[in-house]
Every structure is written in structure tokens, then in C-alpha cells.
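Task card 7
Instruction: Convert sequence to C-alpha cells.
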Amino acid sequence: MVRVADHSAPAAGADGIARTPTGRLAIAARIATRSAAVVLLLVAWEIFARSGKVTPFMLPPFSAVVVRIYTDAITGVLWINLGLTLYRALAGFLIAAVAGIALGAAMSRLRPVRWFFDPIVSVGFPMPKIAFLPIVMLWLGVYDVSKIAMVVFDAIFPVVTATIAGLQAVDKELLWSARNMGAGERELMWQIALPAALPQILTGLQVALPIALIVAVIAEMAMGGYGLGGAMMGASRFADSRGVFAGIVEIAIVGYALIKGLAFIRARLLAWHQEAEERS
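Output:
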């Protein structure tokens, strides 16, 4: 009972501080400090674009890019492209997450599986998988299946390696104690090994998610069609500079939102872990 009280008191105190005016001011100041660099960059972009040293074609003002994004949002073009890009990126990411965790767990527990896949993972991880894009286009065409396949192919490697590293780092004494208490292999994996390796696995997922978005955009640029990448290439073909820069800003916002969303999920899943106490 004492241990539970010790853990709950700091959390309650932190929540109480966050609800006070001073706590809210501190949170606002921290957010402003973190976003200051981005705001300064956008201000510098606007000033330099209007200085006359570059043409609007080379660098349109940020305000003009915002107007273009707003226009695309009103007409609905933005939401179509954004939805398709997110669908391809997230579908590929989810497939890579499930398959990568399963393969990493099998490689860490089964010697024949590790013997077969370890050379493939070792060779495939550092190489640029985007080089296989022409082959994927020849085999699967230029539609969603090929784009999602490229996302899976690129995003699965960090998940596999993180899963293997996490499972290998599990305390052997913990596994030995569980076996002595009668736990079977299935209980060891689901109730002990995977929860213990979860921080490392989530780190691999945090690496794989931006890769999924990047590859989805690149695949859209190469294969054409709708999507943020395809819209940027279409704007480039028609010398629509504002459309190109609007796509860059949109991708940056989406990427930031995805990373923050996964970080939020990580904080909730690891509320029991030591890193949650260190963060608080």
C-alpha cells in the first residue's frame, strides 16, 4: 500500500500543478519555446520571399502557400489527396508492424527461422529499398497495391530489428523464474518477453512510421495518381510553384502529427514503465 501511495502522489501533484494558472503558464511557455524555431523559419521564409532577391516562382511567400492550402481544402482536393496518402502510409505501416513483430519474435525464439532470415535482414536493412520501385511497378502495377507494398518493404526492417533487440535484452533471470513457476513458452512470450521488450519495439515503430510516410509520398511521385506526392508532381509539371510548396508544408504537418500521435500512444502503453517516471 505504501508503494502505491508513493507512485500516485507525484502524479496527483503534477496534475494539480498543471491545473493552476502558474502551471498552465509554464506549459504555454514550454510549447512556445519548442515552436519558436519553426515560427522563426516561417517568418524568415516570408521575409526572404518578399525581399525581391528571388522570384515568386522560385520561392512563393509562405502566406501565398497558406492561401493555396486553404483553397485546396475548400475545394476538397486536399482531403482526397491527404486521405489517400494516409491510407497507403498507415496501411503499409500496420502490415509492417504486425509482420515485423511476428518475424522478429520468431527469429528470436526459433533457430531455423533466425538462420534463414538473419542474412536477409542484415543485407536488406542498410540498402535503399526504394531501388526496388521499378520492379514493384513492373510486377504489381502503379495502383495502391504496389504503393502499399513499397511501404511495407521499407518499414518492416526497423520493426524486425527492434523486436529482436528488445527480446534479446529481456532479463534471463526473469524468464528462468517464470519457467520455474510453471510458465509455458506461450506464457513466456505473451506475458513476460513481449511486455518487457515493448519499449524497444515501440522505438522501432517510431522509426518505421515516418519511413512509411516518406515512401508513400515517393511512390506517389513516381507512379502518379492522386495523393500528396502525386499532387506535387502534377503541380511541378504545370510550373505551379505554390502547389509544390503547399505539398511540402502539408507533408511536414502530417508527419509531425503522426509522430506526436505515436509518441502519445507510447506514453499511454508505457505508463507502467520506468521511462514514464523519468519523463514525469
